[in-house]
Amino acid sequence: MVTIDLTTPPTPPASFLDGMARRLALTLPELRLVAELAGGAPLPFDLVASDGAASDAGSLSGRLGQSRGSVEDSAYSDALGTLHDPRETLRRRGLLTDDGADPGIVGAVGLLATPRLALDIDVAAGATQVKAWHRHSGGAVASLSTCDGIVFELAWFPADQWTLELARVTAVPEDLPLATSQVPGLLDVPYALADSIGEALRSGRSDLVPVLIGQADGDVLADGEPVGDAEAAAAIAAVHTESRGRLRILAAEVAERATTSVGVVSWVLLKDGWHSLTPRHDDGARVAVGRVDPDDLATELAPVLAQVTTA
To answer: How far is CA 77 from the centre of its chain?
Structure first.
């Protein structure tokens, strides 16, 4: 069983360099070459076909969540085609010698392929979308992230620095200034009501919101207190209309067993910042929408990791 404590602050580093993750930017061809030099280590995503064929839902572009048409597929393939030979660029950067690739890079890619604990992270904020893969084993973590499928950030660091790295995931872009939200600090709603109101708004039927509120089975709570129909309608609608981004993390223990438990952390970015989405089943199917700070991600993730590692 893997035990990870993300709620305790990391221990002070012995030196300045010990407290820093090592980061490296690699193009997709460079990343492929490093994976090949690491014994053919599989990367945590499906690679786009090298012949320029259109990608399917399982390809890297599909995993980035973008529905590319033929023109965009062609542009993506053309962009990859303009990159220099990876052996040449890695040698020029001092990352590849006659003895092989830099041991740190090879080790990080190897850890990506052989983890005990895996996090798949999908973050969208405004026009920016980032995919990241965090892999943990022993006392080390390796991460890989990209926003375009062409250039990747590869990082590796001690496990006690993981909390700091997770905080980077929730950084709100500077072009999305925060404002006041109509959603209270803690909103507790019947799941069916939140879902049906969202569907009504997406269909352009905002006139149905008061009807749905009136037919709801269960109270709407704001900061622990029941609220009236008008306030409930405004708050639930704001969860959908204010949305400027979302975060989803899938956590799983990589083990040699028939069943694998998967845990999920979901946040939504509203006008005033991030709000967590937490399902509840102690009083019917409900969802709690709670205001969170970016630094709260590790705390929110800790019980999910405990769940998947003890299942």
So the answer is: 25
